[in-house]
Amino acid sequence: MSGDTFFFYAFSALALLGGLGTVLLRNAVHCALALMTSLLGVAGLYLLQGAEFLFAVQIVLYIGGIMVLFLFVIMLVNLDQASKLQQFGRQTPIALVVALAAVAAIFSMLSKSAVLLPASVSLTPLTGGNTETVANVLFTDYLLPFELVSILLLVAVVGSVMMAGKRTE
Amino acid sequence: MITINHYMAVSAALLLIGTVGVMTRRNIVVILMSIELILNAVNVNLIAFSKYHNQVTGQVFAIFVIAVAVAEAAVGLGVLIAMFRNKGTVQADEVDLLKW
Fold first, then answer.
1. CATH 1.20.120.1200 fits A1-82, yes or no
2. What is the DSSP string of B8-37?
3. Where are the domains of chain A?
4. Which positions 140-159 of A are in contact with B (Cβ < 8 Å)?
5. Half-sphere exposure of residue B19, counting CA atoms within 13 Å on the CB side?
């Protein structure tokens, strides 16, 4: 087994087991830690695919930023008594049936993907580092979406402060 | 040999785990975490195809997906805090004011 294969299976196992833990564990703090494991596995998959910049973004932003936000909120809303309640809603059996149908559909598609996939195209040979290439494309071809995303983030920040902040009448 | 199919399979599995989490869990914090799982599954797929076609456009899209995920997490958690303050619960099926 070559290094690539080994690391692919290791990171995939990390991502999938972490995902299962997120969905199945009772205590919300444990769920957050399992999600962190899963995000770490996904970050490893990025690295294996040569997306070094996204690997760093994933570590800094997801594991460093979003997870801290989640843990803060978990402590704010005091989930101790929530972890003693019933964790799965009444629609669970239906949801599992739907999910199994989706598993069957998606994996039967995947087994035929050799026919369905378009051939690999390589229009522009990549030169320079990954971060440099991503920045070049981001700031030329996708400049307008980039600016729109910054507006979206601004709106999200203002909105979440509005909703979470204390009302002083 | 690891092909793009392997990555697509991992991505699909992660997506389905996240979907099951969104549909079955009652705790809204965990539902938001499952949404993060779904968005990560999308990103794995985008990165795999970016490598497959030897272009970085997929990675640029993944950056946009991450930005939207951050906005979604911030707004979602803000709504959650407001809801906890007003209703004192974080269980999704106890918020049924509009149900008859």
1. yes
2. HHHHHHHHHHHHHHHHHB-BHHHHHHHHHH
3. 1-82, 127-169
4. 141-142, 145, 149, 152-153, 155-157, 159
5. 18
Prediction ipTM score: 0.91
Let me know if residue B85 belongs to a domain.
Answer: yes
pLDDT digits (tens, 9 = 90+) for B42-68: 999 999 998 888 888 889 999 999 999
- Does residue B81 fall inside a structural domain? yes
Which pLDDT tens digit goes with each residue over A46-99? 999 888 999 999 999 989 888 998 888 888 887 677 777 777 888 888 989 999
- Interfacial A residues in 62-121 facing B (CB < 8 Å): 62, 65-66, 69-70, 73-74, 76-77, 79, 82, 85-92, 95-96, 98-99, 102-103, 106-107, 110, 113-114, 117, 120-121
Q: Is B10 inside a domain boundary?
A: no
The CATH number assigned to the domain holding B43 equals 1.10.287.3510
Q: What's the domain range around B57?
A: 27-91
* pTM (2 d.p.): 0.89
Tell me the CA distances in angstroms from A136 to A3, A46, A145, A152, one per residue in order: 31, 19, 14, 22
Count of the separate structural domains present in chain B: 1
Query: pLDDT digit string (tens) for B9-24?
Result: 999 999 999 999 999 9
